[in-house]
Amino acid sequence: MVMRVGGLATGMDIESMVNKLMEAERIPLTKMEQNRTELTWKRDAYRDLNRGLLELDELMNTMKRPSTYRSKLVTSSQEQAVTASSTSSASNGSYNIEVSQLASAATNVSQAKLSIDPDESLKDQGIDQELITFTTVNSDGETVEHEVEIDESDSLKDVLSKITKADNDVRAFYDDQSGKVILETTRTGQYNEDGAEISFDKENAFWAKLNMDPSQEKGGTNAVFTYNDAVDLESKDNVYSLNGITFQFHGVTDGKATLNIANDVESTFESIIKFVDKYNDVVEKLNESQLEEKHRDYEPLTDEQKKEMSEDEIKKWEEKAKSGILRGEGTISGGLYAMRSGWYSKVETGGDLKFLTQIGIKTSKDYMDGGKLIVDEDQLRQAISEDPDGVEKLFINSSEDDSRGLVHRLADSVKDTMGKIEKSAGKSTHTLDNYTIGKEMKNLNERITAFEAKMLRIENRYWNQFTQMEKAIQRMNDQSEQLLSQFGS
Question: Which of 88, 105, 364, 445 is the 20 to 30 A CA-CA neighbour of 389?
């Protein structure tokens, strides 16, 4: 530890002089800190661009799906009775459906208002049972018996809740307004052709108190309909799938309902437009990074400089300092070129559509746009309507030769660019050793740490020199005073 003497003998402001000397010594350190800040900005700018590329890459996963180009539109002449949805494999055309009966759940209701309190213990009301049973029929036509245990303190509502919570396709509850119990299946359809869907012994004390009889059950019916005037069909649900079409029944039809299936041009159109918009957004950001002006006179601010500036001044300064941080980076310019050039390539689809321009999409002629796509919406809709298979092949043929689709070609370019950016700027989860800029930052950190240690030694040396000077001058002063005192005596 250096003992610091601050100008007691000389009257000099030693601390101020040392600080001035250290300011000159700190110039290389300040430059290294500014370089580190610039590397941080550069890394963050790279990562921001990579996030946009990742969003585009994720959207391209949707664009690679055949269903994006084969979406179907289904209309019904009686939507209140029957509607439908279809897979991309469903054939276009008209389908006639006549629904004569809906599928319904089986329901049984107490024939009279209950004489017991649903909230009081059953045992206290004379129903001293430890177990009740009922049966249902499963999907294989087999009778299944269900048991429900009754605890000593259970009320009617407790028992009904146990029935509902059990895995038995049955729901039971008490209706306070009517004073009756409602017992119903949680599924539609007829499973027991010979009787009730929910069967029990009506003479049993518990069921007798509920005033319920299995023979009074209503419902438990299948949906009944005719397909294309030729086939009579039934379904236990009000949903039926046939040849890629899923029909939903909402009511009995008034005669025949006609359902038309056609290519959903608008759905495919909107998917392509959304993709183009995202592509243009990414291109704009990449291109702006190469066109931004580089303000070399605006270097990163030091902490001391920031103390003398307002927040608004700091913000404006750093906007200038960050401008053009990625300008001239080959990874960005090369990625832009690869993305743009893919659109011009011919795609061997086996049909008439071979170029993107044939469906109304072309690249901008303005070089300042960086290769943005421009869409002729009418021409694109017409191409989707007239040749949906050709549009699909143009975009997503997955082969590796000249018939490789444009989306796959773009995906290749995007992944390559993302990989190069990641190699340079890494991910947020990476350590400094995992990417090029990080290694430069680590090297700078080590140099800064070493330089700061050197600065401390230099500062101590200055203080030591000034201290020795102060001590020497003090000794001379003491000697002078002694001589003067001798002459004076």
Answer: 364
